[in-house]
Write a structure and sequence with these properties.
Pfam family, one: Multi_Drug_Res
Family: Belongs to the drug/metabolite transporter (DMT) superfamily. Small multidrug resistance (SMR) (TC 2.A.7.1) family.
Keywords: Cell membrane, Membrane, Transmembrane, Transmembrane helix, Transport
Helix content: over 70%
Radius of gyration: 15 Å
Strand content: under 5%
InterPro entries: EmrE-like (IPR037185), Small_drug/metabolite_transptr (IPR000390), Small_multidrug_res (IPR045324)
Distance between the termini: 7 Å
Number of strands: 0
Largest sheet: none
Structural class: mainly alpha
Subcellular location: Cell membrane
Length: 110
């Protein structure tokens, strides 16, 4: 279970870093750029711990799904970006895929 906590923390810092990426203005703004690099570095460090107990493919599927959902919400609420119906359906299909992997795959480590 602790490996999934590392994965959750890795996802959180990846989303934080990605949220600052737009603010870096192509890395011309130092503070957002530093926050981006540090957040992503910490994210991958935490992911390396998660991979001790979660198969890489499963971890990446979870990472991707949660990252897409959360960063889409950040885009909507912080940057006032919107998603059309095909984008929303695509995100839903990604989530359904991760749920299927975690519920039915023998590859998933629980």
């Amino acid at each position: 279970m602790k490996h999934y906590l590392f994965l959750a923390a890795a996802i959180l810092f990846e989303v934080i870093g990605s949220s600052f990426l737009k603010k870096t203005e192509q890395f011309t703004k130092p503070i957002p750029s530093i926050l981006f690099v540090c957040s992503l570095g910490l994210s991958f460090y935490l992911l390396s711990y998660a991979l001790r107990g979660v198969p890489m493919g499963i971890a990446y599927a979870i990472w991707s799904a949660f990252g897409i959902v959360i960063i889409s919400a950040v885009g909507y609420f912080v940057y006032k970006e919107s998603l059309d119906l095909p984008a929303i359906l695509g995100i839903v299909f990604i989530i359904v895929g991760v749920v299927i992997i975690n519920l039915f795959s023998k590859s998933s480590a629980h």
